[in-house]
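Quick start: read one record
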Amino acid sequence: MGQSSGIGVLDKAVQVLRATAAAPMGLADLCAATRLPRATAHRLAVGLETHGLLARDGHGRWHPGPTLAVLASAAPDPLITAAAEVLPRLRDLTGESVQVYRQDGMSRVCIAVSERAAGLRDTVPLGARLPMTAGSAAKVLACWADPVVQRAVVNDGHITERMLAEVRRRGWAQSVAEREPGVASVSAPIRDPKGAVIAAVSVSGPVDRIGRRPGARWAGDLVQAADALTARL
């Protein structure tokens, strides 16, 4: 059930929200997941739906509603806040563009970026959605993704199990002309306070400038930046 607030109806409503966040659920599935009586589960789900905290799909199953997205958008993101402090220092240290990526299904999304001031850049726009099947950040995120994502990444053929094992062993990944011709990058994992990998921090730039072994130049700095981001969480 998770933590108890001492307010029974609130705790039960949170149970319903957590259950439907895991997968869309009809009433029978919701009762099984929460172990709530049928009448209680139905009453709570309908009440949450009234406030937009839940919605129903075409099969009548409840899933997270639009009000949750509105509330979440107003909350500060601690990783983005931390990135605003750490990325400019990493950019200045390396002289290259730096990014933070989060996994979203079979994509990775750039949630923070700090561009080099001048010269040829490897510009990844804020909010850019890139594949999980190529690039150093993709390797880092795939290493600690759920098994379904890992299998899909490996089955694509560009990233192998052996590559992922090597990334886990050394704690960083590099890529040269994988996602885009002429671009190289190196990435390291960012962890939450419990040690789970939640994102990747990257340095990227033209191969002609940073070479074909970017890890030899920047891996240590990336790992330190990742540790600094983790510490701020």
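Residues 84 and 125 are 15 Å apart (CA to CA).
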